[in-house]
Structure to design on (195 residues):
């Protein structure tokens, strides 16, 4: 799949702000600072579609991007960043739960983890959450350029074990910096949309 057209369609904190549920959606979730904005910009071929911030934890809304006038990519708020106030981080839970639990046109949530580290407790909780809603199965290991090829397989095994992934679950190493791995993710997204 090639993304030729992408635009921010809606910014939401509650369901009445979501765009109409007429198009299929693939959402992206991950810790603050995992490289989600960089990945979305790489997938869409746009430098500034999703804002890359020097201070993690900036995405505090659910951002809906219209892609090729055919489907949506949904950018979920980053989690796990200590400098965000407790009241703000606590409001994310219900916001995410409402979206994940009620959005019928949501096909899958891609969980992003940093390939250099074992998934955090919050990553594990998020994946269990996705499993509960039947939205699991795809993990993107970001920052793949930061480790050697030898380390990569070891780190992917660690990710699989920590998250309790099954044989059918997919882990795709991606580097936004080196622009690698995203074609595999685009192919997978195309298969999901056609499935």
């Amino acid at each position: 799949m090639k993304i030729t057209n992408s635009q921010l369609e809606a910014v939401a904190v509650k369901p009445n702000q979501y765009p109409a549920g007429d198009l299929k959606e693939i959402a992206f979730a991950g810790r603050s600072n995992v490289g989600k904005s960089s990945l979305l910009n790489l997938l869409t071929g746009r430098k500034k579609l999703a804002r890359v911030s020097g201070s993690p934890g900036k995405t505090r809304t659910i951002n809906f991007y219209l892609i090729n006038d055919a489907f949506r990519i949904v950018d979920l708020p980053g989690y796990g960043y200590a400098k965000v106030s407790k009241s703000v981080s606590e409001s994310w839970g219900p916001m995410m739960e409402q979206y994940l639990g009620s959005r019928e046109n949501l096909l899958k949530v891609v969980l992003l983890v940093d390939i250099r580290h074992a998934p955090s407790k919050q990553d594990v909780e998020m994946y269990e959450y996705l499993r509960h809603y039947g939205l699991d199965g795809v993990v993107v290991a970001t920052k793949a350029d930061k480790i050697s090829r030898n380390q990569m397989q070891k780190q992917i095994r660690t990710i699989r074990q920590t998250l309790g992934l099954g044989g059918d679950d997919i882990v795709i190493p991606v580097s936004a910096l080196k622009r690698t791995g995203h074609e595999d993710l685009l192919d997978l997204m195309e298969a999901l949309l056609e499935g």
Observations:
- The mean pLDDT is 88.
- Strands lie at 6-12, 25-30, 62-67, 71-75, 106-114, 138-142, 170-173.
- The CA atoms of residues 34 and 58 lie 12 Å apart.
- The chain has one domain: 6-190.
